[in-house]
Amino acid sequence: MVRQGVIPCSPISPVAGITSEALELYRVAHLRSPHLSIQAFVKTMCDLHGIEFHRHLSQSLRRDSPDWRLKHACPACTYILTNEEQLRFKILYAMDGNDSLKRILRRSLDDDDDSLGISSELPTAQLLVSDRYLSRNFVDQFARDTACATGDNRPAENSCEGRWKNMDDTKTKKAWGIYDETGVFIAVCRHGFCLLITDMVQSGELTKYPLAVVAKLLDAFGDRLGGGYDIGCQFQATLDNSLLGPLARSLRHTLLVGAFHGHAHRRLCQLFSLTTYIKGLGIEDLETCERTFSKSNSLASALRYTTVFHRQQAIDSYFEHNDEFEVYGNLSNFLHSNYKQALDILANGEAILPKVMEDLGVEDESTFERWLEDEKVYLKGLTREPEDETLHMEYWQRLVNLRASQIALDAATNMFGTHSQHDPLSYDADISNTRISENTRRHALEDYERNLKLVQALEHNLGINNRWVPEDGEWQKVGRLVANRKYQRALDRLEGLVVARIFELAKMNRAGTGYKLRKHIARALQTRSAAIRSALNTYNNLASTVYPPRQTLKWEEVVEYAFLADFDLLRNTRFDISSLPWSSPAARSAMDLYFKMCRAREEICRLNIEVRRLVTYIRDEDKYLRECEDRLTVANPALAHQIAIHRNVRGRFNFRHLNRLHDISKLPGFTGTLVPGVSACMGAGDSASLPDPHIPASADTQEELDEEEVAEEVAEETSRSLQDIVLITDDFSQLEVLDSGEVEE
């Protein structure tokens, strides 16, 4: 076979072979595109030859049940042991959309029209079979769910909405006409294993994509899931008002906001959704998607002009390879790094916090919990202005407008009657001036009457009998409220400029940012700094006019702001909170340190569980695969060889993992154990279950292969016998021709 250019797939009784040309094609293609895996190439060859692709290995190991890969994606998250401590969040995951992996939609060209033509892509029957990818039909059913959620149960106004592009409905619902798939929406566990992928089709980051992801995860994993999303505060309201809401609440699903994106959320949103203040979360930042996208973006250039099938195939193959060789290979490093980081936080906090508490006069750490609740109550009161105050401020503004229009009317009336009889102007010029004065007086009268009607309507609604004048106490009180509103708007502008500066500085220091983009950001920062100075001057001028006077800010203070919490404490102008203990910078630093220490202790508890899960998984998985391999060695040596290859995919990292886990056990402060436990997962195909390998029906046993070999030998012998008969017959026919020629001579 080798001499004929065919490489057998098995050294014993091969039933399939691969030509050397196909192997050379894959070698060259893989060198050009390292993301092209063997499995993707084999699937492509099956598609070209019209043959169905069979997963013989997963069937043999009994790991072909629905969602088996999803339910066993991460050993540290899903390999639950018996009698282990129950965590508040069974699984922590992050989800987000990314618009880098776009695909251009081929359209017909029309020379007479500049508009986009109709699609010119040919229909195809190729469909990706992967439990990692959610189908379009599955996702689209949640578009109807989203429409139902926008009815009477519309979510309450969200104060963070204007800060995020994917919260803006006008941008979210606008399709990108040039593209078909405008990106992907993924979910990954906290360790980086890809759980689910779905395509964003001719749209931005619509709510149907996270709804579909949450529905699938709830179905696979059940209760106590914690999901991080950059607009988790807004999406929580959408989820609660969707048809999925009752199920999510019954299973205690929690939506959170990642640590990085939490910079641009309001302080009240941070208190309820930011990772620092959520019990049971540990030190997880829920920004795993950003790290995942930083690597997957390298696929973008190769996917722009592919077909739908080949784009999905490339993305699925990339994440499959990344999970097996990158994420799993670095799993023990992740555990070691987090354990060390948590211990460092505790060591630092235990050295600093007692002294800070003594300086603040705080005797019990529970005081920080009470301060946090007080801040929540305080900030809830700032979400809306009282309705009566709003109406009184509007009435005050109408009175100011009425007085201004009265002054303008009096001035226009006086101007109309002040023309001198000895005016040297001509008669025509005098008529023109008279008409201008009359028009000015008429416009001033119309403005006065319009403002008067508005004032009268507000007086009727508010029940005011005597019109306010500047000497009244009500006038002065509401005037201060109006000044406070201007102060709030100046603070909002200053806050928005500083937040933009924070993100631009972060982008400048991010790996992968090119030189041109860095220069562009630098120029933007120069412009931004000038705008911040102007907004700061406006803010300081208004801060001294409100009652009580508010804190003025210096340039050095503003440019160091990193969280919006520093701005939110300046917002309330009805009460002076400077005397409250939790409002001082020192108290707030102490609060943050205390809650970081709480999260560090929770992280250690979670890591103790995950370390033992990984140790148990390594032992059980290796034992299960070896026993399956031994049982198939005689019955089906080719399949046993494939199991050995599969065992080596993750088994190659076992030695590294065990060494790193040993390093964790040697850390000062380690409270866990490396003694393997007992898995609670005992279903078919699970690592702890009894090995019972199954030989797929399409695969031949050794007896069948021997019978086929005997049959082939018989057929070959018969063929040779028939060939001999044909040769003998041909020889006789030639002899007869020669004999007849001799007779004629």
Write up this protein.
The chain is mainly alpha-helical and 745 residues long. Helices cover 58% and strands 6% of the residues. The protein has helices spanning 20-32, 38-48, 56-60, 68-71, 75-78, 136-149, 169-172, 208-221, 232-240, 245-250, 267-273, 288-296, 300-303, 308-327, 331-360, 366-380, 387-416, 427-462, 473-508, 515-543, 555-558, 565-568, 585-635, 637-651, 654-665, 702-744; strands spanning 6-8, 17-19, 91-98, 103-104, 179-189, 194-201, 225-228, 254-256. Strands 3, 4, 5, 6, 7 and 8 form a six-stranded mixed beta sheet that branches. The protein has a two-stranded antiparallel ribbon with strand order 1-2. Helix 17 runs antiparallel to helix 18. The longest helix has 51 residues, at 585-635. Mean pLDDT is 77; it is low at 150-157, 171-175 and 506-513.
